[in-house]
Every structure is written in structure tokens, then in C-alpha cells.
């Protein structure tokens, strides 16, 4: 099989990662990189899901895809054009990037607020600073990606704002249905479905788990303490062995 001559075939750019920006502006360049966040989050979802086997990450990833499908349906129902057609094909309302980040930010913030508990530093002020910094980072990241769609001229302000708002509404509703209500009311229909999902033989074989149902931080502190105990034992044992040989 030989490569085709460039002039012999019709070629197109891959819109998935194709971003036009003002190459004389540092801000434009930075926002062009930030606007790729939704694409880069997918491998992050995959890695977290497979590595940790936490149900939460599978749920969040599935919800993100459902939100994207919802955006596709809305775009083809409303059929509002982009402000600059020359920058790409497809409809512009609502902005899919903004909707993606609205979902992402709302799901994470709800989880850190309603279920996850960090191990305390021992100082309330430091705990507060940590929490404020985390929420500020999530909201700033999501807001910057949404702003990039307007700044780079891919969407109008209403398209960005509506997209972000729809993403927040979708993420909030979805989190309540798959995480908050099933864990707060385990004997409800949603709670029973969650239990069946975790307890069935296939999930057991895959080692699917819900760490937050046992530990407030999903087991991070317990695992670290176990690692430190075993590591110290091995390290000190190796040191004693080396000292014995030296004598």
C-alpha cells in the first residue's frame, strides 16, 4: 500500500484538536491550550477509572458523555450558528466546551462538599485555605476554558453562558441521582440499584468499589499509613541487615 499523492485526495483538518488563535498574543496561545481541556480529560477519566476501580470515576465519566450527547441534541434542535463560520463547522448553541466544564466543575464541587472529607491538617485555618484554594482552582479552570471559547471567537457570550449553565444543571442533577441520593437513602430504588451494581459477580471480579462508603477520603489515608508502616519496616530491616554485615 503506497501513500497517495497530496493533490490526488481531498484532505481535511481534524476539528477535534484544531484550534485557531492569534499567534502574536501570549494570552491567545494560553487559552488555545486551555480550550483543549475537554479532550485531555477523557484519558484522565480512563486512567482514574481503571487504576482505582472506583465507581465514582466511572459514573463521572459516563455522565460527562451523557452531557456531551445532550449538547449534541440541543445544538441540532436549536441550530444557532457560530459567530464566525470560518472557524469551524457545526452549530454554536450551546457551547459544548463550556457545557463540558460546567458539568465537570459542578460534579467535583458537589463531591468535595457532600461526600469527600480531607484528612485535617490539625489547623482549621489551613484546612479552610486548602478548601478555598481547591474550589477556586476548579472554578477558575472551568471559567477559563469557557472564556477561551468567546475570546478565540468560536462562540458568542450567550452561547458560552448558556452552555456553562446547562452543564452545571446537568452535573448537579446527575450527581444527586447517582451519588447523593443512593448513598443517603440506601433502601431507595436508586440505593438498591447502586448496591446491586457493586455486589454482582462481574463487579466483584473487576474489583469495582465505592471507597467513600467506607472511608471519608476513599481510603487514601489508610492506604498511606499502611504503605508507610510496611516501607519503614523494610527500610529499617534492610538497615539492620547492612549494619550486621558491617560488624
Short description:
This protein is mostly helical and 247 residues long. The chain is 68% helix and 0% strand.
How would you describe this structure to a colleague?
By secondary structure, the chain is mostly helical. It is 68% helix and 0% strand. It contains nine helices and no strands. Helix 3 packs antiparallel against helix 6 (157-184), helix 4 (96-114) runs parallel beside helix 6 and helix 6 packs across helix 7. The model has no long low-confidence stretch (mean pLDDT 89).
Keywords:
single chain; 247 residues; mainly alpha; 0% strand; globular
Layout of strands and helices, then pairs:
Layout: H1 26-34, H2 37-52, H3 55-78, H4 96-114, H5 124-151, H6 157-184, H7 189-199, H8 201-206, H9 220-246
Helix pairs in contact: 1-5, 2-3, 3-4, 3-6, 4-5, 4-6, 5-6, 6-7
User: Element order, helices and strands?
Assistant: HHHHHHHHH
Look at the helices and sheets and give the structural class.
Answer: mainly alpha
Estimated share of beta-strand residues: under 5%
Oligomer: single chain
Mean pLDDT: 89
Percent of residues in helices comes to 55-70%
Largest sheet report: none
Low-confidence spans: none
Indicate the radius of gyration in whole angstroms.
24 Å
For the record, give the distance between the C-alpha atoms at the N and C termini, rounded to a whole number: 69 Å
How many distinct helices? 9
Strand elements, count: 0
Dominant shape: globular
